[in-house]
Specification:
Elements: E1 3-9, E2 14-19, E3 24-27, E4 32-39, E5 42-47, E6 50-54, H1 82-89, E7 107-114, E8 119-125, H2 135-147, E9 152-159, H3 172-178
Parallel strand pairs: 8-9
Antiparallel strand pairs: 1-4, 2-3, 2-6, 4-5, 5-6, 7-8
């Protein structure tokens, strides 16, 4: 787990999303922010007393190298499976909790269907709270990361709230990491 509290000065302005409401903000260049979480390629920063999520595509605004949080080379030449999709989704993290969405129990179902030329992927997932404003941000991150896999032509991510999420859905490993057991 890569959790940190690192003060950095932004090198340029960048778009961020306030956590947990999801409102888009513009963080100016040459301001100090505190990185509180850097997982899966994205960053959670503290700015003006608020948490905000910065996408991996704007890592350079924090003076950090852009990194692909998934290695697609492991999937070349083999048939794509539901487990491959789950593995890629393990690189998507809740912006407040340092645990990936799979181990948090947010992913309910994955369908990976082969077409004549590639794959169509459908993911059903939920959020830790139905009213979380970060839902669109997290689902789009899942969609984009799944689309990076070789031969994936289409990825659809639907939010569902039945059954509602609860702490019992968190994997044992994640519970240990969070100090819950």
């Amino acid at each position: 787990m890569q959790q940190l509290r690192e003060n950095v000065t932004t090198t340029r302005e960048c778009v961020a999303r306030l956590v947990p409401v999801g409102t888009e903000i513009l963080i100016p260049g040459d301001v100090q922010v505190t990185i509180t979480q850097a997982l899966g390629g994205s960053f959670t920063v503290l700015i003006n007393g608020n948490l905000a999520r910065i996408d991996e595509s704007d890592a350079d605004a924090l003076g950090k190298p852009a990194s692909s949080s998934i290695d697609v080379s492991a999937y070349t030449g083999t048939a794509l499976t539901d487990q491959d999709i789950y593995q890629v989704m393990r690189s998507v993290y809740d912006p407040e909790i340092p645990v990936n969405i799979v181990d948090l129990g947010l992913v309910y179902h994955v369908d990976c269907h082969r077409t004549r030329t590639g794959y169509r992927v459908h993911v059903q997932m939920t959020l830790t709270a139905a009213g979380c404003g970060m839902g669109q941000v997290i689902t789009e991150e899942v969609r984009q990361k799944v689309l990076r896999l070789p031969r994936v032509e289409e990825a659809r991510v639907d939010l569902v709230f039945d059954p509602p999420w609860d702490m019992a859905m968190v994997s044992e490993e994640a519970q240990l990491e969070l100090g819950l057991i």
